[in-house]
TrEMBL record:
<dbReference type="GO" id="GO:0003676">
    <property type="term" value="F:nucleic acid binding"/>
</dbReference>
<dbReference type="InterPro" id="IPR052338">
    <property type="entry name" value="Transposase_5"/>
</dbReference>
<dbReference type="InterPro" id="IPR036397">
    <property type="entry name" value="RNaseH_sf"/>
</dbReference>
<dbReference type="Pfam" id="PF13358">
    <property type="entry name" value="DDE_3"/>
</dbReference>
<feature type="domain" description="Tc1-like transposase DDE">
    <location>
        <begin position="25"/>
        <end position="166"/>
    </location>
</feature>
<protein>
    <submittedName>
        <fullName>Mitotic spindle assembly checkpoint protein MAD2B isoform X1</fullName>
    </submittedName>
</protein>
<dbReference type="InterPro" id="IPR038717">
    <property type="entry name" value="Tc1-like_DDE_dom"/>
</dbReference>
Length: 206
């Protein structure tokens, strides 16, 4: 449940950005892809309920970014991310982002402490032309969450048998996302802003 202060800030943000041009905003985030996301049932004696236990918690993390004009390559990793590693990811992808968007674009990230560290802020301010401030506790505003959901569903249907399969499928499905999906998700931002305002800052069905 969102606190009132967060709802108010979400409404203020939505009003401020309602009429923005969203085609040159690069939406970014990282997410985890699980190997063997399905579960097994385990029965216990007596009348205790069935407990569902994950088969395997092995995972691969991924970072990516997209806009209406295209997407970055997908960066896959298994180590724990810290501020230094996050900056290295951004440094690695900065040339391809510049090639895709030129000098007039806006960088979006959430408020994860790694993203807002002094190290990350310094790199972003020096290398990216503009940063979009982001309201706290607002994954429903970020269209990359919808993109992750699509890719995870497609990867899961392919039933990867090991981590190599998982990583290969992640990259393939990321690369196969149609441009029309990227455009639609980018331009959904106006409607998201409208819904935030209409719902007084409450979470929206995205």
């Amino acid at each position: 449940m969102l606190a009132e202060v967060h709802k108010q800030k979400r409404v203020e943000w939505a009003r401020k950005h309602l009429n923005d041009r969203w085609d040159r905003t690069l939406f970014t985030d990282e997410t985890a892809f699980q190997l063997f996301r399905n579960t097994v049932e385990r029965w216990y004696k007596g009348k205790r309920p069935v407990r569902r236990i994950p088969k395997d918690r092995t995972k691969i993390m991924a970072w990516g970014g997209f806009c209406a004009k295209g997407k970055t390559s997908l960066f896959c990793f298994k180590q724990i991310m810290n501020a230094e590693f996050y900056v290295e990811i951004l440094r690695t992808h900065a040339p391809e982002i510049s090639q895709m968007l030129g000098s007039r674009w806006r960088f979006q990230q959430d408020n994860d402490p790694k993203h807002t560290s002094r190290l990350a802020k310094a790199f972003i301010e020096e290398n990216f032309p503009q940063v979009l401030e982001w309201p706290s506790n607002s994954p429903d505003l970020n269209p990359i969450e919808n993109l992750w959901s699509i890719i995870k569903s497609k990867v899961e249907k392919r039933m990867p048998k090991n981590l190599d399969d998982l990583e290969n499928f992640m990259i393939e499905e990321w690369e196969n996302i149609p441009e029309s999906v990227l455009i639609n998700f980018s331009y959904s931002m106006r409607r998201r802003c409208e819904l935030i305002i209409e719902n007084n800052g409450e979470r929206i069905p995205y």
